[in-house]
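Much of our argument rests on the idea that a fold can be written as discrete symbols. Part of our work consisted of pairing the sequence of a single chain with a tokenised description of its backbone. The amino acid sequence and the backbone structure tokens for this protein are reproduced below.
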Amino acid sequence: MAYYPDWVGGEFPPEKIDFSHYDWLDFAFALPNSRFELVWDDDEAPSLLSRLVAAAHATTTKVKLSIGGWTGSKYFSPAVATDDSRRIFANNILAVYNAYNLDGIDLDWEYPGHEGDDGNLYDPADTSNFLAFLKVLRTTLPPSAKISAAVQTLPFLGADGDPINDASEFGEVFDWILLMNYDTWESSSPPGPNAPLYDACNNSTQPASSASAGVVAWAKAGFPVSKLVLGLPSYGYVSRSSSERLRTRSPWDHSKSHHWWHEHEDDEKHHVHEDDEGEGDADWHWWSGHGGWGGDNHNGDEDDDEDDDDYGREGGYRPPKSPPANPDSTRPLTVVDSDGQVQFRDLVRQGVLIPSIGADGGVQYTPGGGFERYWDSCSETPFLRSTTPGQIVTYDDTESLALKARFAKEVGMMGVNIFDVHGDTEEHHLINAIRGAMGL
């Protein structure tokens, strides 16, 4: 699975997609307005969606329309607040579903019960209202339509401001949900991992923000693990820093949800009993960096406890795997996005990452352009460091994405979904590594 955002249409039209790599594509985004209609952020989006559906349906790939997103969630709360608004919103979704010959709907509400982006409307009753709306939507759409959602690694917030402890009814109305395991630290100083697989060093003040923690939290709340999809990023962030380690503590985030996690964090260290429907006796294991296949926590480094700072102990790391391919270069990495986000393909285009064939026949990347590659063993993610321009790139590559994909398969998740399809290389190195790790 992968997201196809409307803003990539100019450089990466639907006709360029190799649909053989994807079972599902999510077209992002349609936005609810104040009348609970679906509108577009780009005038070309309707035409682009039609072309995507036509190209996908010429193969076996199916298409969902993703509604909302970070900047498109302002009116979700009033749209699901009353019986009348739910009916209107569901019927408007049905009209778009039929108009574009879709196969499903993805709801990316960021977030029920709290603001998300500035100006978003929210209400303590959002989560219960959302469930009521989903039941209406389920009966409004055709029986064959799939309904999914993009969610945080913690369950939705209840009226008390804490994550709900019973999400089982959501498991009855969703076909699956995607855990948005990315944007944990974004561009920051000191930098932190973008998409942690684990909190393997047990020292993060964002312990809920990892793939393993997310699966535990939703499973504990009664949501079937077999209906969980792991979100994977095809991008990273550039931060101004010369640090040799990634931080794991947040100096500002003391939300109730994180206090809740500390009360339940021991659950991540134990087995979780779950069958394919979320109710049986089958035993699947948590690989949270405590002896699982993800590797050990500190790699035996004697100095893992050093370099404390105001943000707490920084993450364990492996030294650079290889010297930079161009150690004399002082050229800084160019970042297109104002928030410091950089696509994996752009790291390759700018010579910061150089592909080669590894001993196992798979593609691996070595650093170039004056950068060195480090490995943060607390989160099981790589980062790049360039001392001359003072830049750190926190990102995922073929190695770390393969680890995440293997994790998803091992714990019985439905699959993975990459954001987004255009962040990969022309040769599909990321998606090929993901598919290979899942045995596809």
